[in-house]
Write the structure tokens for this entry.
Amino acid sequence: MNIARCLETIDRLCLRPFPVEHGWSDVGRAGPGYFMAELLAGEGEPAAREQAAEDVDAHKEAVAQVLHRRWGPVRPWGTLTLRVRGLRGEEIPEPWGSLSHLVDEAYVWEADGTGRWVALGVADRDPSDAIRLLAVVTETDPP
């Protein structure tokens, strides 16, 4: 997916009604109050994984640059604290709990005028899975 299509997907999800049940949508996982869209997938094979990680990360940075101009610059937000809080028994709301297990850090913006949050990160924590560029659109404030 090129940068323009990634942005189009994010924009569409900022306006689309959320589903009432957990499940799958045309862009990926979805549930009450959130969408988690797979914008791009790289290789999961060990030999190609390093190059795929670089490619997907470059794509993330290109999309983020447009969103920084649109909603203001933000620093990467680390998700380790959420994983630790979850392991200690704290209830981490979705989609933030799932996102914290998939990505180590994400850019997070409040999408002006929509009442929604947008997160953008690279899912590369599972070495047996493909590296993916994820966009999360949610009405749930980051914990």
In short: Residues 46-71 form the longest helix (26 residues). The mean pLDDT is 93.
